[in-house]
């Protein structure tokens, strides 16, 4: 037995206009706050729209204004909890500004050009770059899309063509070094993620500068390769197995590396023998099982400043978005 298929007709502005007894243009104006239309006409339009289940086509309207109200959000390292924190915050703030987020994943191995070309074809109003590495290829693509404003959040770059919103990483690194020096530690390590210029973050530079002021130095640099828990574990485990003398403390470039390092210390019977500090203040850092001392970047302020620049063309170069704060817990302390 063949069932008759019901064909759904999508309600248009013309349908609403006919039901309300007004012009199609009156229907369009009725859905625009502040547009010139009488209260009576607006009430008739809204009533007819409700009866017919009509919703205005915001994309078509925005294209007619040459603004789509779509912000491209470029991310990688999506297994990193900090990336998820950023995504949650940025989508919340974009939506609060009556815009939409188009999430673009550029995890290594993806076709950067194809992904960003999609953003170009959808005519996004701007791109928020939250990824960990801004490669030469991505910079070249950004230059080709010069008509689309781009703001990078969370790290610096080597070009003056791309706007940057970032914490004062040099200051943060110095504050962390000072905390560890205050414990009386003598030997210090640093664990980095992707092997990029330290200037992109400045955390390592600030850490090293403050240690040198106190007559110390970075004695060991561990390269994890990626911001991944297992990579932090592996880098620390290899160091412990190398037979090299232990440093007193290690500043890890982000929290997932720090958690991996702590796990390696525990599983190799070295828990409490090395102080560990992270960076980002992910949710897991504050749990009883970790109690990770870390740096809180204040991502709400960073994202707000970035969106002010992208959407409103307003910037506060010396605003409090540059400031973060240290979250002192227990992981930086060695066992007595």
TrEMBL record:
Positions of the HTH lacI-type domain: 11-65
Pfam family, one: Peripla_BP_1
Keyword annotations from UniProtKB, A to Z: DNA-binding, Repressor, Transcription, Transcription regulation
CDD domains: HTH_LacI, PBP1_LacI-like
GO molecular function, one term: transcription cis-regulatory region binding
SMART domains: HTH_LACI (SM00354)
Domain of life: Bacteria
Signal peptide: none
Protein name: Substrate-binding domain-containing protein
Lineage, uppermost ranks: Bacteria, Pseudomonadati, Pseudomonadota, Gammaproteobacteria, Enterobacterales
């Amino acid at each position: 037995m063949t069932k008759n298929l019901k064909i759904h007709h999508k309600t248009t502005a013309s349908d609403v206009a006919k039901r309300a007894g007004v012009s199609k243009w009156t229907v369009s104006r009725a859905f625009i706050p502040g547009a010139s239309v009488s209260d009576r006409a607006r009430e008739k339009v809204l009533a007819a729209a409700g009866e017919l289940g009509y919703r205005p086509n915001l994309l078509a309207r925005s294209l007619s204004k040459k603004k789509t109200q779509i912000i491209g959000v470029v991310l990688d390292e999506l297994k990193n909890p900090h990336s998820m924190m950023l995504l949650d915050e940025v989508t919340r703030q974009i939506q609060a500004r009556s815009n939409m987020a188009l999430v673009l994943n550029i995890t290594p191995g993806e076709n950067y050009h194809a992904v960003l070309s999609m953003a170009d074809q959808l005519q996004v109003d701007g791109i928020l770059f939250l990824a960990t590495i801004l490669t030469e290829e991505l910079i070249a693509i950004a230059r080709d899309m010069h008509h689309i404003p781009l703001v990078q959040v969370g790290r610096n770059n080597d070009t003056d063509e791309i706007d940057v919103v970032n914490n004062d990483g040099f200051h943060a690194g110095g504050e962390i070094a000072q905390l560890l020096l205050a414990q009386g530690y003598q030997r210090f390590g640093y664990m980095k993620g992707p092997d990029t210029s330290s200037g992109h973050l400045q955390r390592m530079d600030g850490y090293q500068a403050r240690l040198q002021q106190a007559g110390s130095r970075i004695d060991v640099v561990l390269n994890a390769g990626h911001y991944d828990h297992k990579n932090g574990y592996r880098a620390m485990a290899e160091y412990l197995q190398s037979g090299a003398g232990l440093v007193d403390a290690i500043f890890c470039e982000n929290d997932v590396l720090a958690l991996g390092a702590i796990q390696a210390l525990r599983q190799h019977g070295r828990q409490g023998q090395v102080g560990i500090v992270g960076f980002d203040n992910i949710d897991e850092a504050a749990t009883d099982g970790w109690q990770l001392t870390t740096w809180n970047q204040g991502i709400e302020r960073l994202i707000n400043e970035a969106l002010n620049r992208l959407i409103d063309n307003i910037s506060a170069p010396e605003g409090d978005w540059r400031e973060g704060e240290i979250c002192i817990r227990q992981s930086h302390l060695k066992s007595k």
